[in-house]
Amino acid sequence: MAAYVSCWHFQTHKNMSSNIRLQKVCQECGREFIARTTVTKFCSHLCNGRYYKREKRSNYLDVALMKERAHRAIMVVAETPKKGRPRKQVIPNNSNPSPSSPLTRELLDIEELAIVVGMSERTIHRLLKDISFPRLRVGKRLLFEKTNVIDYLNTKYSNR
Fold first, then answer.
1. Are strands 75-77 and 88-90 parallel, antiparallel or unpaired?
2. pTM for the complete prediction?
3. Are 152 and 134 in contact (CB under 8 A)?
4. In sequence order, what are the beta bridge partners of 34?
5. Sign of CA dihedral 3, 5, 6, 11
6. What pLDDT score does 135 carry?
7. Shared domain check, 86 and 48
8. 128 lies in a domain?
9. CB 144: neighbour CB atoms within 10 A?
10. Same domain, 111 and 135
11. What total number of domains does the chain contain?
12. Cβ-proximal residues to 27 (8 Å cutoff; 6+ apart), any chain
């Protein structure tokens, strides 16, 4: 004959889930639903997936537009050298970009530097192997002073 033993552990940890029920409105479709947590934003996995996909597409397009605008705004083809193809020289444009734009800030991270200089991030990582490449380490962040990098690239690649 088994006797029922009352134990505080079984009483307090019997049901680990929350009993919260909140009436919310889905951020994707606008329908009302009952949420079980305070951070739930969507009524279903389908609405969550639609929102996620739209945000990813929007962010991808924003980055692509920013790269294209920055590339057009600061890169001009200089006169053709005697040998080889025309080289690109960085010349600031007189347009007025926003104060938070990589075009106006002096200290840039690798992603912003890639946009400003018109190179891929991988190419900048390869250039970092050269100990004379201008860089500035602030804590764990690796930053670059825009004018120093442009001067470095112009002096290093002007003879080619």
1. antiparallel
2. 0.39
3. yes
4. 23
5. negative
6. 92
7. no
8. yes
9. 24
10. yes
11. 2
12. 41, 42, 47, 51
In this structure, what DSSP letter does residue 57 have? H
Taking the chain (160 residues) in runs of 10, the rounded mean pLDDT of each run is 51 62 92 91 93 85 74 49 51 54 74 86 92 90 90 82
User: Which tokens hold the place of 57?
Assistant: 């597409």
Tell me the two tokens of residue 46: 């389908």
Give me the CATH number covering residue 147: 1.10.10
Tokens of 30: 């606008």
What is the per-residue pLDDT for 76?
Answer: 43
CB neighbours (10 Å) of residue 42? 20
C-alpha separations of 108 from 31, 79, 137 in Å: 43, 28, 11
Residue type present at position 139: G
What dihedral do alpha carbons 29, 35, 38, 39 form, nearest 10°? Answer: -40
CB 89 within 8 Å of CB 154:
yes
Catalogue the E-assigned strands of 37-129. 75-77, 88-90, 107-108
